[in-house]
């Protein structure tokens, strides 16, 4: 189901009801980029803390422009019902108080365009959102009440487009129903293709009581708003109208500044476990966009995230960490490949069925034929892959000891290029911290020393060492000593000199210096450098004069 700014108030109750009934909720984001600067690209030598910091710095600079959610609820008889939702997201703008800036990475835009992402819909129909931290800021600057008032006015304003559409059809509809006031079989069709929901809904509400004495029946050719092309009008009989009057309709939710955040507030309140695929950045986007600024330290983030979401399962980590699943899926663990390889089990219990009325997506063996890389569809097949993985692992999703049996897989995200996951359950020391004490960063000031020369210099003085470069960047190196004593000797030399950098000459070239720092000092220098190179921006929150 596509959720837009136009239909958000009408569809939000459906989304919230699905969340309340859900056993699991899968999610996925489409973003405007991944790495905000060259220095923020990951290397296999990064500590987990540095990886988190790099990801955090990129996430806060990029926008999440599409959110996919899919709820999964047991139906009994070995069936699970899936309800996928797809939302374009656009930050709430409050003149003089809030105006998020974000970057676009060209490769990300190209990828989205190749997969038919509608950038016009993002701007015109994107559902707004506001984090808890931003809402507190608005409240402190006494702007929150004004924002709520403005949103209510926008939601109830009768636009020129609504008036025009009404005038185009009103006379014809009135004449049609006046010709045969007692005939309950005649129908009249109105073309609503490419017409906004709010526009044709205004026609329905304005004419309903006038032309049929409150007995107007309205049907559409599709349950999906984006696929609707016509509305069909009919006068109901007195008996039909009486029966319809006692059928409860979905409550309308008043538009709030928090917007799409309301959905995650409900997930948090109900403590529903989350499902994702390769979801490290996605999890950071949830926090940054809906909760508040990301902490600098990985441990602080882990603790805060767990406080909101007690359980999250990453299907990429799941299939990468199980011999059983590796045998069924193979070494390729991208979402499309995982889903295709698990499609053969579609008829085995639990069977995943897309709920009636959610016609935008269908489960097919080839995701490229459907809507691959649209966030709502990716959330759907993430959930499918999770349940089929449980089936192969012989772990029933409703088992009393489910949490215990899944403890090894819970709250862990894979980190590309390294075997250590980002573990939300671990507030302790960085898994790479001990190794990083034997790692040093080296730069060559005049850029003339070769890698082999550098290796020889340090081996002769301290012992066996491996020398690495990152991204082929010349004149910037990392040393990893093979013996702990070698690293301790170099560290002691730096300590005795009371310097954060050690200067060594390249033999035969006294003007060629090697500058050596500890790995911890390198991390601090990198963070300082990134902050200095960030362009100056206006503050997001301005005091009203």
Written description of the protein model:
- The two termini are 44 Å apart.
- The chain has helices at 8-21, 48-59, 106-114, 119-125, 132-140, 144-156, 160-179, 197-212, 238-245, 261-270, 280-290, 298-308, 315-320, 323-329, 335-342, 375-393, 402-405, 433-436, 451-462, 484-496, 519-533, and strands at residues 2-3, 24-31, 64-76, 79-88, 187-191, 216-220, 230-235, 274-276, 312-314, 351-354, 412-413, 422-423, 439-444, 465-469, 476-481, 502-506, 509-518.
- 42% of the residues lie in helices and 17% in strands.
- The protein has 21 helices and 17 strands.
- Helix 7 (160-179) packs parallel to helix 8 (197-212).
- The strands form four sheets. Strands 1, 2, 3, 4, 8, 9 and 10 form a seven-stranded mixed sheet that branches. The chain has a five-stranded antiparallel sheet with strand order 14-15-13-17-16. A three-stranded antiparallel sheet has the order 5-7-6.
- The protein has 545 residues and is of the alpha+beta class.
């Amino acid at each position: 189901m596509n959720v837009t700014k136009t239909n958000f108030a009408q569809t939000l109750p459906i989304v919230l009801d699905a969340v309340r009934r859900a056993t699991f909720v899968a999610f996925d984001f489409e973003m405007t980029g991944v790495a905000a600067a060259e220095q923020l690209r990951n290397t296999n030598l990064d500590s987990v803390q540095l990886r988190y910091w790099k990801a955090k710095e990129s996430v806060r600079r990029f926008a999440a422009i599409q959110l996919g959610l899919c709820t999964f609820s047991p139906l009994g008889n070995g069936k699970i019902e899936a309800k996928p939702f797809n939302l374009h997201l656009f930050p709430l703008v409050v003149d003089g108080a809030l105006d998020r800036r974000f970057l676009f990475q060209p490769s990300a835009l190209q990828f989205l365009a190749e997969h038919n992402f509608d950038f016009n819909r993002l701007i015109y129909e994107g559902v707004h959102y506001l984090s808890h931290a931003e809402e507190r800021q608005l409240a402190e600057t006494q702007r929150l009440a004004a924002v709520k008032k403005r949103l209510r006015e926008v939601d109830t304003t009768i636009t020129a487009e609504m008036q025009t559409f009404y005038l185009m059809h009103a006379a014809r509809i009135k004449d049609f129903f006046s010709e045969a006031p007692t005939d309950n079989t005649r129908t009249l069709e109105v073309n609503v293709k490419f017409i906004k929901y709010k526009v044709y809904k205004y026609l329905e509400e304005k004419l309903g009581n006038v032309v049929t004495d409150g007995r107007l029946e309205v049907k559409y050719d599709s349950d999906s708003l984006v696929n609707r092309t016509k509305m069909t009008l009919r006068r109901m009989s007195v008996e039909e109208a009486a029966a319809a009057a006692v059928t409860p309709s979905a409550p309308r939710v008043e538009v709030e500044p928090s917007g799409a955040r309301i959905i995650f507030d409900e997930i948090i309140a109900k403590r529903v476990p989350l499902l994702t695929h390769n979801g490290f950045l996605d999890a950071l986007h949830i926090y940054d966009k809906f909760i508040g600024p990301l902490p600098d330290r990985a441990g602080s983030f882990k603790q805060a995230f767990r406080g909101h979401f007690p359980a999250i399962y990453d299907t990429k980590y799941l299939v990468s960490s199980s011999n059983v699943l590796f045998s069924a899926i193979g070494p390729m663990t991208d979402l499309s490949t995982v889903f295709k390889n698990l499609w053969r089990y579609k008829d085995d219990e639990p069977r995943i069925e897309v709920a009636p009325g959610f016609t935008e997506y269908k489960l097919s063996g080839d995701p490229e034929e459907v809507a691959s890389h649209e966030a709502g569809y990716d959330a759907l097949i993430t959930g499918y892959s999770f349940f089929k993985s449980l089936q192969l692992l012989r772990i029933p999703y409703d088992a009393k000891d489910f949490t215990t049996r899944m403890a090894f897989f819970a709250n862990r995200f894979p980190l590309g290029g390294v075997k250590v996951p980002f573990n939300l359950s671990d507030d302790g020391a960085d898994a790479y911290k001990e190794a990083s004490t034997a790692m040093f960063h080296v730069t060559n000031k005049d850029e003339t020393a070769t890698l082999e020369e550098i290796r020889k210099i340090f081996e002769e003085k301290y012992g066996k060492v491996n020398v690495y470069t990152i991204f082929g960047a010349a004149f910037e190196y990392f040393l990893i000593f093979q013996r702990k004593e070698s690293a301790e000797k170099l560290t002691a030399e730096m300590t005795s000199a009371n310097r954060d950098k050690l200067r060594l000459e390249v033999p035969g070239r006294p003007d060629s210096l090697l500058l050596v720092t500890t790995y911890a000092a390198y991390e601090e220098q990198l963070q300082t450098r990134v902050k200095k190179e960030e362009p100056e921006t206006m503050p997001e929150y301005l005091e009203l004069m």
